[in-house]
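#struct-queue
[09:14] JT: dropping the first one here, sequence first, then the structure tokens:
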Amino acid sequence: MNSERAQDMIQPDAAYPWLLPSAVMEPRAGGGRARRTARDWAVDIVCLAFAALFGLLVADDARASAQVSDGALLADQIVGAAACTALWLRRRWPTELAVALAAVSAVTPCAAGALLVAVFSVAVHRPFRAVAVAGGLALASQPVQAIVRPDPGLGFMGASAIGMLLVLTMIGWGMFVRSRRQLVLSLRERAVRAEAEAELRAERAQRLARESIAREMHDVLAHRLSLLCVHAGALEYRPDAPPAELARATGVIRSSAHQALQDLREVIGVLRAPESAAASEGTPGAGSGPDADRPQPTLAALEELLEESRQAGMAVRLDQKVADPLRVPAATGRTVYRIVQEALTNARKHAPGAEVGVVVGGSPAEGLTVVVTNPPGSVEAAAVPGSGQGLIGLTERATLAGGRLEHGPAPDGGFRVRGWLPWPV
């Protein structure tokens, strides 16, 4: 609400810059003062005309009452004209000008109009301490003027009261204008800050979307490439296998490589287009990336994943305790699917030949539990670079979903992965 109000108040700055004072305009690129706008020139001319008219009225009153000689009156008018001309300096040195004019107007009534304008400028452009100093001197000059140049019609008390009232009126008006300008500046600062924060939120949403895509692609590509390595290894160590088995293995290699390349092409395409990496509201992965091009796996697709691993030569046993996997929320089922997928990939890399057991169970009241275990492999596995990164990412993913993931060595020397996720109703 504040940012909208700020935009409404600052919009004239972009459309009609001449309507605003230079004090609320953006500073110049070099850090200097903003140039005077057409409004500033108009206000300066009006202030000069007001001070000159006020001085002429005072001079006419003095001439009519015959208080001073013609020579003294001429000198007063010259000094008053000089004071009015000095008002062109009120934007650069308002306090100094007000102090000087307070001393001059104490003995020269024709400079009283210029003093009022100078006091107003101090109240607009300077903080309260400067206003107190200049305003105090201006107030003190009024009784002095009433003594030096008495007014027979008003008397000492009347002339002093009217002069002080005029000074206080100009101070109050100037402080009101200053507070209004400060409000505009604060609203503009809030608008700029809100715009910067919106850009940061957009960048953060894009970064989170890219991390989500990278995490998803890691799970998919690791699974595909591990299948490819298993079948390629089988071809390497069993060149005398039957033709049908060789054909099946090469088919799996071709299919896995094709799927891996397709997944890699999709993630590269998304990362090259940052604007498509996040949804309109900044939700990572929503309506963009691979999610928008193909359906994401859920718990109902778990059997297909295990069957794919069995075709690669793995021994996988599934204990499905969820009566209807289709009832499981898509996001929760997808997380379980990725946990099992990563566990199968790790078992294939670190425990080749071992039978993998998968247990999935739960209910809306208890949540969803998945346990994947495997004994030690029948043959020693070679070291794999970057091992463990997938489980770290899945642990973070489960935590973000409101669940938890535990993994580590099993008592029999194997490995165990156990995850729990809430089941939103």
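[09:21] JT: and here's the second one, same format:
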Amino acid sequence: MRICTAQGDERVSGSIRRSADWIRLAMVVHAVVVNLLRLDVAHQPVVMIVVSSVMVAWSLVMVLYGRRNCRRRRNLYLCDIGITAVIVALSGPVLGTEVLRSTTFGLGGFWMLMAPVTLAMYTGSAVGAGAGLVLGAIQFLEAPSLDPRVWTHLIITVTVPYLVGLLIKVNNEAIAERNRSVATAVALEERERLNRIVHDGVLQVLAMVAREGHELGPRGKMLALLARKQEDQLRTTLQDKHVDVTKGEYLDADTTDLTTMLEKHQSKTVTVSTMAGHVSMTTDRAKELDRVITEVLSNVFKHAGVNAKSWILLEEEKGQVIVTVRDDGIGMTPERLQAAADAGRLGVKESIVGRILSLGGTSTLDSAPGKGTEWEFRVPLQ
């Protein structure tokens, strides 16, 4: 989790950063005032003044340059932790053990919290808490005591950065979820608008061609079958609430339900059978698998004819999905497949087998002349 990235709303992240800057300045003022009040009891008052000046100067550096890009900010935050650790380590020699134990405040006071808090905002709660533990342990070991005022500071330096990092993470996740919801609502509204346009135009034309094309002879009959198939696929896609028809993508940016994805291939010549419930896969992997299925069905249409029937079966077994695509076409021989590859037609090798391999899966082809073709794909869900 990085507050400087595009996660969440930039205005909210900017407000949090500005608030942290103001708190840092307030804490450095508090630390300087406390140090001035202890100037007469410190073992090395001159060094105390120098250290206080360094804290003020470094706080200004963090405020002025802490809003740079992530790459530079990473090094700046590491320097912030290092400088804070040095100042905390000087508390014992400069103040003296007795003064440090009696006041429970090191040279940095509560200002020392800002380094792990800022780191937690950038890298996450665990890293921030770890940095706070290191700083708190340094100060505790300089004047160890069972006095609750002493070890309570150690607890604070751990819990406060952890809490801040956790709040930032929850905030960014909530904003990201809100943005996804807004994007989904906008996409669905646009879908309804396109539905009306497509229904009043394209679908009516396809329906008319499918209905009257049979009267135009053999070529008209083939055209009618094509129009009917395209009409079925278009209706299925428009009715699929998981698909953003404006971008050709799935509305859920993270995962896709494979059962819904495959059902969009259902038509008069394609039968889809899936199990009950949802089978979730990351959207990128699901899209790649869908391209494979589309390529197989396209080959059925091109080589087996418009009247060929196809069946798609989806199964889930031990962390993987099994997708079987079978048709009743003319089939093929291995020699014919090899000849196509030798001729430079790599549709099967690249678009089907290659994609399945890239998903970490396996593909099996079973075909014979006159007996149709059957593909079996086994792809891990993760």
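[09:30] RK: nice, looked through the second one.
[09:31] RK: The two ends are 22 Å apart (CA to CA).
[09:31] JT: good to know. The first helix runs from residue 10 to 37.
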